[in-house]
Every structure is written in C-alpha cells, then in structure tokens.
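Chapter summary example.
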Amino acid sequence: MERKIRVTGKGKISIKPDLIRLNIKASDVLKKYEDCINKSSKSIKELRKIIENSGLNPKDLKTTEFSVDTEYKSYYENDIYKREFQGYKYIHNLYINFPNDNDLLGKVLYELSKNKTDYEFSINYTVKDTESAKNKLLAKAVDDSKTKAEILAKASGVLLGEIISIDYSWGEIEIYSNPIDDFAINGSQSFESKIDIDIEADDIDLSDTVAIVWKIQ
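The structure predicted for these 217 residues follows.
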C-alpha cells in the first residue's frame, strides 16, 4: 500500500490598491413603461456626461445589470392582502475603474452632486493586475504546503517523495476593500468646488489554500 501524506498549505499576501472601482446604480419608478425606458436612457446619458466632465473616458463606464420590472405596493385591507400597482421600475448598475487618485475621485463626486438625478454608489479599492496577485498568492500556498510536509516528514523519520495530487478549488478570489460606506449623492447637496477627499486605503489582505498529497517513504 502506497504511503502518503496530505498537507494543506495557506498563502497570505497584502497588496497596495492602485485602482478605484466606482459602482453606480440608477433607478426610478414611473407609471408608464415608455416613460420608464426614456428616463433610464436619459439618466445614463447624464451619467456619461458626468464622467466626461470629471476627466474620465465615458466609454470606460460599463453596465453590469439592466432591468425593468413592475413595482407593487403590498398592504392589508380588512385583513385581506392586496397589491397596488405603482408603476415600472428600472435598475441600471454600472461601474468605472480609474487610478487610485483622491483628486480624481473628488472631481467625480463633485460632478455627481451637481446632477438632479439621484445615483447610489459605492467605492471599492482594488488592483489593476489581479492575475499577478492571484498567482503570487497560489505560489505562497504551495510553498507553505511543501514546508509543512518537509517538517512533518523529518519529524516522522520518513522521506518526502514526489507529489501525487494537488487539490485546489479554483474559486474566484475577490480583491477589493471598501473603506467608504455606500451612500447616495444628488442635486440637493451643494458643493461650490470639487470635493476634497483624503483617504489612504489600507492594504488588501488576501489568503487562499491548496491541499497537496505527497508520497512518503
């Protein structure tokens, strides 16, 4: 019977964010379907203009979700459950990536504040070269497994042989941090000039595991 040992290695790295991902949501409810479609189109055209005025390329604004659905208000009347039609609701989720620059972020937020349309958004900090970060993390996990296997083999008085198998989930690793809470900004807020942002986002801590089966003799 072949003798073997299974060791799980854990890789850990901390990386400095160099990219900001601005997630933007535009939504509204209107009585008529046609008005809903027109409003959604108008809001995105306004958003692209905002992005352009901020000094960014409006073509970099990407859609992740767009939907139009009926909206109802639920309530009870004389102990009878009822639904009242409110109209049609559109939801348009988009994002744009740009360098981790507080001045640039302030310009974008300022342009958003001047617009009458309400936009909900969140700010994530991430890295441009995600593949390099993932590869470095995986290499660290493999090295950790090998180090642990060598220690265990030596302590047990056996020799560590070749690798029999590697078990890795290949799951998607999310590389981001969000030090700024989600909030909404609209034309009701008044800013005379660009918004001053002074944020130094913390390093992003990542970890991943890999299980390796080694032959021992």
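To summarize the output: The CA atoms of residues 3 and 71 lie 63 Å apart.
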